[in-house]
Automatic annotation (TrEMBL):
Residues 2-150 form the Resolvase/invertase-type recombinase catalytic domain. Pfam families: Recombinase, Resolvase. GO terms for biological process: DNA integration. Residues 416-450 form a coiled coil. Residues 160-276 form the Recombinase domain. It comes from Prevotella histicola JCM 15637 = DNF00424. This is Serine recombinase. It comes from the Bacteria. SMART domains: Resolvase. The keyword Kinase does not apply. Keywords: Coiled coil, DNA integration, DNA recombination, DNA-binding.
C-alpha cells in the first residue's frame, strides 16, 4: 500500500523532523510504502494553507492512506464542522486516514463518517482549538510581561529608521530569566539624520527640502529608497523618537531622542512650514496663510492684464475661478499692492503703541495661566495612568495563574482590554494637552518677539512675513464694490485694526480708531457714541453703539483725519 504523510508546525523556528520520524516508523511497521510527505510551517488556525489545497487533490490513484501525526496537525480551527469536512473529503477521494495519537482507529476510504466518528473528531478538534487559544494567550501575556521588563525587546517587523536589531548579549536561553532574545538599539548614523530632520523642521525647512537634502547626501531609507515628503512626515510623527513606544496598546518608555518641547514644536512646524513655503521667487505673498476671504478660503494672487497693457496683481478668493462657488462667494478682490502696504503700515504703527504693549502683557498673563492649568492636567493624568498600569500588571499575573480555566481567562482579558482602552484614552488626552501647551508657548514666544521689534524700516517682504507670523492672527478683506471695502487685521494679542480702502485715483486708505469694532456678519463698523438721556438730565451721558456702512461713514465723518500714507516705508 502507498502512503502519504502530513506534517505541520506553526512557525519557522519549530522542527518538522519529530513528526516525520513518527510517520516513517508507522509506515515501516505496517509495510506501507511512504511515497511523499506534505509539510508546511504555518499556523493551524489558517484556512487558506497550501498544504490543505494539496491534500484536497489527493486521490486513490496516488496513494491508499494519509498518515497524520495527530489531529491538531491537520487543523486547529475553532470551526469544528470544517475540520470534519476536510477529513470526509479525503475519505471520499479514496484514501484511508489515520492519526498516530490514536493509530488503532483507521477511517476507511469511501465510507461516510458515522455519528460516533463525528463526535470523536469534533471533541478532538475542540481540544486542539482550545490548546491553540491557550498557547496564544500564554504567548501574548508572556510577551507583554517580557516587554514591560525590557522595553527595547524586538517584537518583529522592520525597526524604525534610526534603530537596528541586535542579538541580546545577555540572553542565554529561557532558563536565565532574561526576557528578550533580540533587541532594537540606536543606529548612530541613522539617528544623527533623525536629529538633523527635526532640527531642519524647527528651523522652518519644508518636508520636500529636507528630503532633497538627505537624498543629495546619498542617504537612503530602511527600504534602500530615496526619501520623500511622506517618509519625512512619518519620521516626524513617530513618537518613538520622543521616548514613547507601544506594543498591543501598551505604552512603553524608552530614551528620548527628541525632547518634549522640540517634539511638540515639530508637529506644529510641519504644517506651518508647508503653509509658508516660498514657492515663487517673484510676486512673493508675505501674508500667505494669514489673509483670507470672508467665506473662509484663502486670498490668492491673480495677475490682471487690462487693455492698457500695464499688468497688476489682485488678491481674490482662491475659488474665484469655480463658477458654482462664485455664486456663493460674492466678495470682490483688492489690489495686492494696496493691501500689503496697508497691513504693513498698520503693523508698524501698532507695534509702537502703548496700547499694544498693554494688550500683549495682558494676553501673556492669560496664556501663562492656561499653561499652568494644562500642566496640572498632565500631572493628574500621569498619576491616573500609573494606577491603571499597576492594575494591568495584576491582571497579567492572574491570567497566567488561571490559564487552564478558559472562562476566567476570558473575563480577565476583557478587564485587561478595558484598562488598555483607558490608557489609550489618557495618552490621547495627554497628547492633546501637550500640543495645546506647545501652541500656547509658541503664541507667548511670538508676543514676546513682537514687543522686541524696534527697527522696522527698509525690510524685505520675507522679513515682513516673519513678523506677520509672530504678530498677526488673521487678515480678512470685506469688499463693498470693486477695490473698495474693509481690511480687518486681527493681532495675536487681541488688538484689531480696521482699514478702509476706497477706489480712488490715488487709492484713499483710512485707518479707523481702535475704539471702533467691525461686525463681520453685517459688514459694518460699530462705533461707540455718547448719548444724552433727556429724561434724566442730571445723569452722565451713556455710551451706545451704532453701526455704519462705508457710505454712512463717509457722510457722517470727515474721513481725511483718518487718512494714512501707505507708501511710507
Amino acid at each position: 500500500m502507498k502512503a502519504v504523510g502530513y506534517i505541520r508546525v506553526s512557525t519557522d523556528h519549530q522542527d518538522l523532523s519529530r513528526q516525520e520520524s513518527l510517520i516513517r516508523q508507522y509506515c515501516q511497521k505496517n509495510n506501507y510504502c511512504l511515497i511523499k510527505i506534505i509539510g508546511e510551517k504555518v499556523s493551524g488556525a489558517k484556512k487558506d494553507r497550501k498544504s490543505l489545497a494539496e491534500l484536497h487533490i489527493l486521490d486513490k490513484s496516488l496513494a491508499d492512506i494519509l498518515v497524520v501525526s495527530e489531529l491538531s496537525r491537520l487543523s486547529r480551527e475553532a470551526d469544528y464542522a470544517n475540520v470534519i469536512f476536510i477529513i470526509n473529503n479525503i475519505l471520499q477521494n479514496g484514501l484511508d486516514v489515520v492519526f498516530l495519537d490514536e493509530e488503532s482507529k483507521v477511517y476507511k476510504a469511501g465510507k461516510s463518517l458515522d455519528i460516533i466518528d463525528i463526535i470523536t473528531l469534533a471533541i478532538g478538534a475542540k481540544t486542539a482549538a482550545d490548546e491553540r487559544m491557550k498557547i496564544a494567550t500564554r504567548m501574548k501575556t508572556g510577551k507583554t510581561t517580557k516587554i514591560q521588563i525590557e522595553p527595547y525587546m524586538y517584537t518583529g517587523g522592520t525597526a524604525p529608521y534610526g534603530y537596528k536589531i541586535i542579538d541580546n548579549p545577555l540572553y542565554h536561553g529561557q532558563i536565565d530569566n532574561i526576557p528578550a532574545k533580540r533587541l532594537i538599539t540606536e543606529d548612530e548614523y541613522q539617528m544623527s539624520n533623525v536629529r538633523l530632520v527635526f532640527q531642519m523642521v524647527l528651523n522652518g525647512t519644508t518636508l520636500r527640502d529636507i528630503a532633497e537634502h538627505l537624498n543629495k547626501s546619498g542617504t537612503l531609507t530602511k527600504q534602500n529608497k530615496p526619501f520623500c515628503e511622506t517618509s519625512i512626515s512619518k519620521m516626524i510623527k513617530n513618537p518613538i523618537y520622543n521616548g514613547r513606544r507601544r506594543f498591543k496598546g501598551l505604552p512603553l518608555v524608552i530614551k528620548k531622542i527628541i525632547s518634549d518641547e522640540d517634539w511638540n514644536k515639530a508637529q506644529i512646524c510641519v504644517s506651518q512650514n508647508k503653509l509658508f513655503k516660498d514657492i515663487a521667487t517673484s510676486n512673493f505673498n508675505p501674508l500667505k496663510g494669514i489673509v483670507f476671504c470672508p467665506c473662509g478660503y484663502a486670498l490668492m494672487l491673480h495677475q490682471m492684464s487690462p487693455r492698457s497693457g500695464q499688468k497688476y496683481y489682485v488678491l481674490a478668493c482662491c475659488r474665484k475661478n469655480n463658477k458654482e462657488y462664485r455664486k456663493k462667494c460674492r466678495n470682490m478682490g483688492i489690489k495686492s499692492d494696496v493691501l500689503f502696504k496697508s497691513v504693513w503700515n498698520c503693523v508698524k504703527r501698532s507695534l509702537t503703541l502703548t496700547e499694544y504693549s498693554e494688550k500683549s502683557n495682558k494676553k501673556s498673563e492669560q496664556i501663562n495661566t492656561i499653561i499652568t492649568q494644562l500642566n496640572q492636567q498632565l500631572v493628574n493624568n500621569h498619576k491616573s495612568m500609573d494606577n491603571i498600569k499597576e492594575e494591568m500588571r495584576h491582571i497579567e499575573n492572574a491570567i497566567i495563574k488561571v490559564s487552564d480555566i478558559p472562562s476566567l481567562v476570558d473575563k480577565y482579558k476583557i478587564d485587561y482590554k478595558k484598562k488598555q482602552d483607558e490608557i489609550s484614552s489618557k495618552e490621547d488626552s495627554n497628547k492633546a494637552i501637550e500640543e495645546e501647551i506647545t501652541k500656547n508657548k509658541q503664541q507667548l514666544e511670538r508676543i514676546q518677539k513682537s514687543q522686541a521689534y524696534k527697527q522696522l524700516h527698509d525690510m524685505t517682504d520675507k522679513e515682513k512675513s516673519e513678523i506677520y507670523k509672530n504678530v498677526l492672527d488673521r487678515v480678512v478683506y470685506y469688499s463693498e464694490t470693486m477695490f473698495t471695502g474693509f481690511i480687518v487685521i486681527d493681532y495675536k494679542n487681541g488688538l484689531q485694526n480696521i482699514v478702509v480702502s476706497k477706489r480712488h485715483y490715488n487709492n484713499l486708505t483710512l485707518l479707523l480708531p481702535t475704539t471702533f469694532k467691525f461686525n463681520k456678519e453685517t459688514r459694518k463698523v460699530v462705533i461707540p457714541l455718547h448719548k444724552h438721556d433727556a429724561k434724566q438730565p442730571y445723569n452722565l451721558d451713556f455710551i451706545k453703539e451704532q453701526e455704519f456702512s462705508l457710505a454712512e461713514l463717509s457722510s457722517s465723518y470727515d474721513l481725511e483725519e483718518w487718512k494714512i500714507n501707505i507708501d511710507d516705508k
